[in-house]
Amino acid sequence: MSERSTPYRNVPQGQSGNSSTSGAAPGGERASGLDRIAILSGLSARERMLLAALCRSAHYISDEVIHPSGMALEDVGFVVRGSVQLVTPADASGCFVHHRVEAGQQFGDLAVLGQDLSDTSILACEPTELIICPGTEFLNILSRHAVVSSALLRQYAHALHSLDRA
User: Fold this and answer.
1) Domains in the chain, ordered, with CATH?
2) Around 66, how many Cα atoms within 13 Å sit in the side-chain half-sphere?
3) Greater model confidence, 164 or 41
């Protein structure tokens, strides 16, 4: 999501559904949060710190809407704590597809890579902490760090393999 379309609110930390930044070193808390993200595990601590400085934090309560349907998804959300539910209408019959994203995983990457997810709603399943990475920065990380691109491809391959078994 871009700044012009983001539903993430800039409200002081400690209140529900808030974006916040740490009062310590810029990106310090976010960098430690990025340590928990599986596809970023191949980056050095310095690289995660540099990425964290470009990101923002957001906190949500259970059942809070993170991203409403009808808006373009332009950023990548890394789930540091908690989990989120992506809800997408499957077809005209009114059936919905639910996909849960747990701590250590991300969402929005497919949108940044070109898939239209504007019909997808994203909800916090429980109290949830996110680190929001601008889509352009996520693409830069993928282009500069083969280890992250490879990890993302392995994640996609695993998801496709799981679908084949279902």
Assistant:
1) 9-160 (2.60.120.10)
2) 37
3) 41
CB atoms under 10 Å from CB of 5, counted, come to 12
* Backbone phi and psi for residue 140, each to the nearest 5 degrees, phi listed first: -60, -45
Read off the pLDDT of residues 94-139 as tens digits, 9 standing for 90 and up: 778 889 999 999 999 999 999 998 999 999 999 999 999 999 999 9
Spell 11-50 as b/e; 16+ CB within 10 A means b.
Answer: eeeeeebbbbebeeeebebbbebbebbbbbeebeeebbbe
How many C-beta atoms lie closer than 10 Å to residue 4's C-beta?
A: 7
**Residue 87: CB atoms within 10 Å:** 15
